[in-house]
Write a structure and sequence with these properties.
The complex is a heterodimer of chains A (112) and B (113).
Chain A lengths: L3 E4 L2 E4 L5 E7 L5 E8 L3 E10 L2 E4 L6 E3 L9 E3 L8 E8 L7 E2 L3 E5 L1
Parallel strand pairs in A: 2-11
Antiparallel strand pairs in A: 1-3, 3-8, 4-5, 4-9, 5-6, 7-8, 9-10, 9-11
Chain B lengths: L3 E3 L3 E5 L4 E3 L1 E3 L5 E8 L6 E6 L5 E3 L5 E5 L4 E6 L8 E9 L5 E3 L3 E6 L1
Parallel strand pairs in B: 2-12
Antiparallel strand pairs in B: 1-4, 3-9, 5-6, 5-10, 7-8, 8-9, 10-11, 10-12
Classes of the chains: A mainly beta (112), B mainly beta (113).
Chain lengths: 112, 113
């Protein structure tokens, strides 16, 4: 089955540590995205990538970094510079930029 | 900045009641409109979408939505809800195939059996 796989599903970290969330897709989609979901705020775009080796900041990129070395993979690093990292993180992909989004199951990060 | 508002934070209905969830957006140009649903413990999935053409759009599981351009609205409807419709519903707008989907804050629907 084609889809988007995020890992880990749950992650606990201490303050000051960087953490990397994995996102892999086998849909052959060009565009990939990272969103952050907080209660009552909907989804906010962190980073997106239209093609391999290219990515752009979204609305709330500060404290995050990404890479896109392969079409299938778009990992997100939550750095120690992110002031409020505890959240639910969603990865998505689309055939091309602006097309229908397909989502992974999400990763819940809790910083202690 | 563009924004999407959803009228209700939490809606509680009994089975067989009719549903209408409001969605309004602020962008005045050409838009693509979406409703996504997140069932408990599952990933977000597309309910329906509007790109162009007939403003009344039918989606999965008996849902439909009507695009009213003059009101900047894209309300979601279902004539008779079921307990299995309990979920969180998100309206989203993407303007002119741009990179950024703007999502509303979500409406939590609880359907009582």
């Amino acid at each position: 089955d084609g889809g988007i796989t995020q890992s880990p599903k749950y992650l606990f970290r201490k303050e000051g540590q960087n953490v990397t969330l994995s996102c892999e897709q086998n849909l052959n989609h060009d565009a990939m995205y990272w969103y952050r979901q907080d209660p009552g705020q909907g989804l906010r775009l962190i980073y997106y990538s239209q093609i391999v080796n290219d990515f752009q900041k979204g609305d709330i990129a500060e404290g995050y970094s990404v890479s896109r070395e392969k079409k299938e993979s778009f990992p997100l690093t939550v750095t120690s510079a992110q002031k409020n990292p505890t959240a639910f993180y969603l990865c998505a992909s689309s055939i091309d930029l602006g097309g229908e989004l397909f989502f992974g199951e999400g990763s819940r990060l809790t910083v202690l | 900045a563009q924004s999407v508002s959803q009228h209700n934070h939490h809606v509680i209905l009994s089975e067989a009641a009719s549903l209408e969830l409001g969605c309004n957006y602020s962008y005045g140009g050409t838009v693509n409109l979406f409703w996504y649903v997140q069932y408990p413990g599952q990933h977000l999935q597309l309910l329906l979408k509007y790109f162009s053409g007939d403003p009344l759009v039918k989606g999965i599981k008996g849902f439909e939505a009507e695009f009213i351009k003059s009101k900047f609205s894209f309300n979601l409807r279902k004539p008779s809800v079921q307990w299995s419709d309990t979920a969180e519903y998100f309206c989203a707008v993407n303007h002119n195939y741009g990179q950024n989907f703007v999502f509303g804050p979500g409406t939590r629907l609880s359907v009582l059996p």
